[in-house]
Amino acid sequence: MAEKIGRRQFLRISAMAAAGAAAVACQPQTIVVKETVEVEKVVEKEVTKVVETEKIVEVEAVSGKQAPALSELVKAGSLPPLDERLPASPKVLSSARNEIPDGDLDFQVGEYGGIVRTVQPSPNWQPDIFVATDEPLCAAPGILADGIGGGVAESFEISDGGRTFTFHLRPGTKWSDGEPVTTEDVQFVYEDILSNEQITSTFPSWMKTGNSAAGDPLTVEIVDTYTFNVKFTEPYEGFPAFLAICQWKGYSELLLPKHYLKNFHTAYVPLADLEPLIAAESLPKGEWWSLFGAKRVNNWDVCRDKAVDYPVLNPWYLTLFGTTSMEYSRNAYYFKVDEAGQQLPYFDGITSAVVADVEMSQLKVIAGEVDFLREDATIDNLALYAENADKANIRIQMLDMHVSPTDVVINQTIDDPSWRLVTQDVRFRRALSHATDRPTIIDAVYYGFGSMPVHVPSEYDPALANELLDDMGMNQRDADGFRLAPDGQPFEIPFLLSQDASDIVPVCELIVENYKEVGVNASFQVVEGALRSERDAANEQYARVLWNHWPELWWGALWDADPGRGWGRLWMDWFNTNGQTGEEPPEDVKAFMGHRNRSIVVAGEDREAEIAAWKKMMYDNVYCIVTVERVPYPLIVNKDMRNVPTSGFAIAANFSLEQMWYDR
User: Fold this and answer.
1) Tell me, what's the pLDDT at 501?
2) Three-state SS for 538?
3) What's residue 561's pLDDT?
4) Phi and psi for 103 in degrees, rounded to 5?
């Protein structure tokens, strides 16, 4: 309905619109006045007219603080105006606080336009895109969980001695299909997913008191349309860190689009009405929960075909899932703006070419067909990148790796008494660590980049390794000169590898030779990742080489320092099921897990003490043999790309892709 306003109010609104260009909060639609005169004004939806007695002055009311393509959609009437798409208080990225920690980036307000091209050697997984589209409920710059504040949720408070967490959603936030985000979406996750045993057979341990399977599950209390409480029976001060960054968790842990997913849930749709959909997914009759799983998209599902056009809160969403290419389009309802009030992201979209293998990824880079690549950019190709940088219009940003890339993990719970006799003796694990020629590995595989580990005994000392092996009873050898187990049985370490990264096989080759030099027989086999995972799940994986987060990130211990990482599969089953399955671990492992779990439950000095305790136990017991630390990442970016961090962890650049832009 048209509204008449007088001259004074009109001039005041015009002045406010001009001042709004520098505002950092959500603003009403921008009004560009072509001529200011004493008139009355008729306000309409997208184009307003200033009416006077002599002439008409056209005034555009389509905000310039959005991508030009979105402005055209607004003008055409196929998209609501910007002020109706943004929350009342969008998240503001500025030079003072953005998605990169202080000192790692000189933030600049950007310009719209351009597609980010990347590449993936997997048909349904691109980790760079996964991280770039991951939006947490709470957030902190970078990946260290320091200075946690608002993310998808505008804010949160901790009360009741660390037992209650009150979260405030941003009023006006929309899913990518334009539907409102409210606490109904939270209630849906808690009541219809987490509390439904057919969908969630085991309540997640991190959502229980004490970060333990033995703890009481959290409870959710809805306060109003935008406010909800999460409660624990004991203090859990690190819970926001889980929601912000730990294990790359996104908002989908507690927030999902009810308006979409309820269509596949028997609490809202009769089973008979779901049967055609169940059959269409080739699922057994009646398995509505499997149908629900096929339709539900969590943050790690963004690269799968079921994510096409699924309602999200991410900067981009999947619009094309193809055999040769994936395409992600801008979310017109994205909840972030820059300090000039411009809605993010700057890039129009992302395109990822699907290739056969990692080697093909490198060819795409040097051909100038890649604008951003971290996961598959490798040190061994550094010279190749540099040689082709000008032709490919790329630059190589050397940043920190957030993992130790090639650690040795020996499974101590294999069903073989002789194997256990050897591997559960800490002297054996220390011997392997001292037998590892890390200086040669750093030079040969990492081209001199990287550091000797400080988290395990790492001095290269074959003599000490031989002494430890003799002392533990492996002083007898077979006809080939390899050591026998203390019970006289032949002993061999059969590494099972998959091509998860380009450095895993060459590092393992050198390690196998190092072990043989001290009389420990070892070999390796390379298989498909799926087969290796199957062997691991069945507790049939004796040893592997893989990366670990815990040497670089304190919260990484919550992810992959535990026995489930491969050094005690049956022990981890026991922890995960509160002793119902698996095998009870020894007391030292229980103590280690106690410190590991408490490091997220407590805060401040208590947290530092728990971290120091589990790190000391890792050093003393060598549960995992770290090979090399502090290896850098050669982040590949288009030369025209701006707001790329110049220091810090490379993966933080992925988390900040929505604030990058092309300077062209």
Assistant:
1) 87
2) coil
3) 96
4) 90, -15
Beta bridge partners of 119: 353
- DSSP per residue, 577-599: TTTSSS-PPPHHHHHHHHHHHHH
Q: List the 56-60 sheet strands across, edge first.
A: 4-5, 40-42, 47-51, 56-60
The residue length of the chain stands at 664
- Distance between CA atoms of residues 196 and 202, nearest Å: 10
CA dist list (Å): 106 to 102, 119, 381, 647: 9, 27, 28, 11
The 10s digit of each residue's pLDDT in 604-627 is: 999 999 999 999 999 999 999 999
For the chain, give every domain's residue range: 4-83, 404-621
In single-letter form, the type of residue at position 180 comes to P
Q: What is the pLDDT of residues 54-106, one digit of tens each?
A: 333 333 458 999 999 999 999 999 999 999 999 999 999 999 999 999 999 99
Give the closest residue to 441 by CA, choosing from 473, 406, 480, 488.
406
* Fold (topology level) of 404-621: Dipeptide-binding Protein; domain 3 (3.10.105)
Residue range 21-39: mean pLDDT, rounded: 34
CA distance 80 to 84: 6
> Is the pLDDT at 12 greater than 60, yes or no?
no
Distance CA 308, CA 318 (A): 5
Phi and psi angles of residue 653, each rounded to the nearest 5 degrees, phi first? -60, -40
495: helix, strand or coil: strand
Q: What are phi and psi of 468, to 5 degrees?
A: -65, -40
Tens digits of residue pLDDT in 143-169: 999 999 999 999 999 999 999 999 999
pLDDT at 43 over 90: no
476: exposed, middle or buried (Cβ count in 10 Å: 0-12, 13-18, 19+): exposed
Task: Calculate ∠ Cα 149-153-155, nearest 5°.
Answer: 45
The distance in angstroms from the start CA to the end CA of the chain is 43
Is the peptide bond between 87 and the residue preceding it cis, with omega within 30 degrees of 0?
no
Q: Which tens digits make up the pLDDT trace of 496-513?
A: 999 888 899 999 999 999
Question: What contacts 24+ positions apart, CB below 8 Å, involve 247-250?
Answer: 247/206, 247/555, 247/558, 247/559, 248/130, 248/131, 248/134, 248/299, 248/300, 249/136, 249/299, 250/134, 250/135, 250/136, 250/137, 250/298, 250/299
Name the token pair of 199. Answer: 């969908």
Residue 185 bridge partners (DSSP): none
| 3 state SS of 110 | coil
Please give the angle made by the CA atoms of 251, 255 and 261, to the nearest 5 degrees. 125
Of the two residues 256 and 39, the one the predictor is more confident about is 256
pLDDT at 38 over 90: no
Q: Among 514, 571, 522, 561, which Cα is nearest to 544's? A: 522
Q: Residue 7: pLDDT above 90?
A: no
User: pLDDT tens digits for 172-229?
Assistant: 999 999 999 999 999 999 999 999 999 999 999 999 999 999 999 999 999 999 999 9
Q: Read off the tokens for 198.
A: 């057919």
Could you tell me if 532 and 546 are in contact, meaning their C-beta atoms sit under 8 angstroms apart?
Answer: no
Cα distance between residue 296 and residue 185, in whole Å = 13
Q: How many CB atoms lie within 10 A of CB 57?
A: 16
Measure the CA–CA gap between 167 and 148, rounded to whole angstroms. 13
Residue 622 sits at φ, ψ, to 5 deg, of 45, 50
